[in-house]
Structures are given as C-alpha cells and as structure tokens.
Amino acid sequence: MTCMSRNIMFAGGIPADSTEEVYSLLAEAVGDRAISWPDGENTPARLKWIGGVNKRVLTPAECFEIVDDRDVPKPAVHDEEGRHRLRIRPGATVDLRGRLPYAQDAIDSYAVFTRMKKEGKIPADTLFQVSVPGAHDVVSISFAYYEEWPVAIAAWQEALQDEYRRILEVIPADELCIQIDYCTELDHIGGAWAKLLPWVPDLPAEELFERYTSLEYIGPHLAGLPEEVRIGFHICCGTAPYYPVQPLDTIDLPVRLANAIQAASGNKVNYFHMPAMQDSGDEYFAPLADLTTGDATIYLGIEVNDGAEEMERRAASARKFLPEFGVAHYCGYMWNKEIMPGLLKDLRTGADHQADAVAG
C-alpha cells in the first residue's frame, strides 16, 4: 500500500452555496493534505445524492413511468417528498446516455478549479475529483420491480461511460480522480436494504456478494477510464435515513468487498474508503489484516462526529492491523452542515497525527 503525507480523502458531498465556496473552504481547512478535491455536489441533479437523480434524471425520462403507490407501497422511512418509484415503460428502449449530470457539472466546476489553481488557492498538483454512484445505488432506490433491474443497471453503466468520455474531452486524465460510490450494494448484501425498502428482494448474502463484486458488475463502472485516471471506491454502509443503515460489528464485509472489487478490476483501483462506527476498536479493525488490495491506498472513515481524541483512539486501534492508511469522514458532509467546520478541524488534526505515527 502507498502511504502519503497527503492523507485526507473526501467522499464528495460538501454543503456550500457555490463550487468556489467549496474550494475556498477546503483550502482553509485542509490545505495540501488531500490528493483530490470534490466540488461539493451542490447542483440540483446531484443534491441529496440519489434523491436529485431520481427527480431530475430518471423520472422525466420517456422510457420510464411512475408506479402507483397502491401497487408498490412506500417505505416507512427513507422516503422524501417528490421521489418516485419507477418502472420501464412497456416497449421502451432504455437509454440514459446524455441525461446524467456528472460530465457537464464536472466541466463547469473544472473551470473554477483551474482558475483557483492559477490564483494559488488550490495546490498545483491537486486532482479534480468526480464522484458517481454505482448502478445499484440508483436502481435499487428508484425501480420497483426487481426483474427490471438488470436492464436499468446496464443503462446506468453505459451512461456513466458516456459521461467519462465527455469529461475526458475536457479534463486531462492525469488531473482526474473518478470515485465510485458503493453503498447500497453493501446494504443489500448485509440485509438492511431489503428490510428498509419493501420492493428490494431478501436474497442470500453470498449470492449478492458474488453478483455485486463480479467482473460483469464492476467492469462496466470502470470501462473507458485510462490508467492515468485515479480510481477510487467509497464503500459505505449508508447514512440516510440514519447512520449506519447497515450496522457493522467489524470491518470484515468492507474488507472482503474491497478485496473482491480489486480482483474484479484487475488491480485498477487506486484507493478504497471504508467506514467506521463511533465505538469501533480493536475487534472492529482486526479484519484489516486480511486486505489483499495491493498498492491501493486505504482511507478509513474514522472521523465520526465525536472529536479528535476519539478519532485518534480509533486510529490507534486500526494501526495495530494496518499501520499505513489515510483518514476521512465516515461519508459525505451533506448531513452535517451546521457542525462541518468543527469536523474538518478534527479531520485535519487526525490526519496530522496519522502522518506523524507513520513517520515514526
């Protein structure tokens, strides 16, 4: 594994009123401690992650239609006003290419990013980060009929590839970081997703694990990305409607997922982010010793809203099993706007402690 002094990673969401405000906030809060910076994901189609995609990308698409709530019941939780359950319109061809927001938003934000680099406000070798949701994130929340998922998943993957193509026409590959958010896959494998959403099938964990770590699933998420692009996976256990959606007694499942994803990718993944809980200690972090992800950097989400001292306690436990790792918040900051300045300060403090510990 490669360990760097620039050891902070951001999952993506950073609440602010503009891209420039996000970059100014990061410049003040973490300086040169992060390899890549996201733009905050504050545009309408990306706001609230999958919520914006459902409302502004999927629901208006001619190939889909809204399912009557009398046919598919709403979940008791994890629902928000305006989100629809969808199905494929009979006879329609499902093609989402050109509909996704990621390329145009990236191109717009990159203009701000390059300007602020020239002004000296962003470290010169910082990469531009684009975070995109894995297909299961989008499809499992929005599509009410499981038998339609394979078609919708393939359409999302093809549309992502088209977004990559458009992004790479403007942003040089060696300045780009693409992060795949891998969340509801874990929640489905762990069993929480089927309990939360009434249309999600409760299937054997190993069957789901094999499906969502297979080359057939992982490969299309990475197709079209040249080796110069930094590729990451944000392995999450879910933050809405509460954290964690999928409780974890140990980090074993994220570790096994990272190992399998890396194998399926042909060792193309440069980093993995894995979550921690507030009470995580030695028992939780012990499976880190089983990582087989090669040179990929591991970022641990050990900043969990409870202060720098608790963050360092978790880091000390994790170092017993994996001496070198980077640090992160447990997810994005979209749900933590009011306390975010303090969280960023804790993250910076924890990152410096970890760098000192690695340096000896």
TrEMBL record:
InterPro entries, alphabetized: UROD/MetE-like_sf
Lineage top rank: taxon: Bacteria
Protein name: Uncharacterized protein
Species, as recorded: Corynebacterium variabile
Lineage, top ranks: Bacteria, Bacillati, Actinomycetota, Actinomycetes, Mycobacteriales
